[in-house]
Structure formats: C-alpha cells, structure tokens
C-alpha cells in the first residue's frame, strides 16, 4: 500500500467532526480512500469550462416567492406555558452535543 498524503490524525479529526467512531484499522483504510476522492474532485474541477455557468440544477428553476405580510401569531407566554420546559423566554430542550457553542 502506498503512503497517503492524508495523515492518520487528519482522518481521525474528520471522523470526530462527523461524529463517527472509527477503529485504527479503519483509519488506515480510509486515508488512501479519502486521498483518491480528493484527486477525483480535483479532476472534476479541471474539466469545468469557463464558458459554462455554475448551476445547482440541470434544468432552469424559478423561485416562487410571496410578499411578507404581518399576520397575528400565537402569544409567546401562552406557548411557553404549554411547553414541556421553558427558560428565559425560550423553549428548553435537552443538549444533543457535548461541546460548547
């Protein structure tokens, strides 16, 4: 197996960011695979021609919008009273990430 330009630490860091649990063996497997993926993405970038405009869809899209109109909404205090938990005029929900924002 050839030496990958992507380090084991980088693979472990990407796994952490993706919240994936990977083994040492998987790190060794993923490093060259990620290297090849990046090479393929670079090749696609080389093919892109200046005369072809960037697009997100292969067919023309029209954005349908409506005017913003203020309408009555629910009373905040009433909604917060009905919530399972509220704190400082907001809904209180369980923490889902172990990191500080």
Task: Describe the structure in your own words.
The chain is mainly alpha-helical and 101 residues long. The chain has a domain at 8-47: Histone, subunit A (Orthogonal Bundle), CATH 1.10.20. The protein is built from three helices and two strands, in the order H-H-H-E-E. It has helices spanning 8-17, 24-47, 76-82, and strands at 86-87, 90-91. A two-stranded antiparallel ribbon has the order 1-2. Helix 1 (8-17) packs across helix 2. The model has no long low-confidence stretch (mean pLDDT 87).
Précis, in short:
By secondary structure, this protein is mostly helical. It contains 3 helices and 2 strands, in the order H-H-H-E-E. It has a domain at 8-47: Histone, subunit A (Orthogonal Bundle), CATH 1.10.20.
Q: Give the class-level CATH name of the domain at 8-47.
A: Mainly Alpha
Radius of gyration: 24 Å
**Low-pLDDT segments:** none
Tally the beta strands. 2
Estimated share of beta-strand residues: under 5%
Strands ordered across the widest β-sheet: 1-2
Q: Please state the second-level CATH architecture of the domain at 8-47.
A: Orthogonal Bundle
The biggest sheet, with number of strands, parallel, antiparallel or mixed sense and barrel status, is: 2 strands, antiparallel
- The assigned structural class equals mainly alpha
Distance between the termini: 40 Å
Q: Within the CATH hierarchy, at the fold level, what is the topology of the domain at 8-47?
A: Histone, subunit A
- Quaternary structure type: single chain
SSE order: HHHEE
Helix segment tally: 3
Mean pLDDT: 87
**What is the approximate shape?**
flat
Helix content: 40-55%
Family: Belongs to the GatC family.
Enzyme class: ligase
Subunit structure: Heterotrimer of A, B and C subunits.
Organism: Antricoccus suffuscus
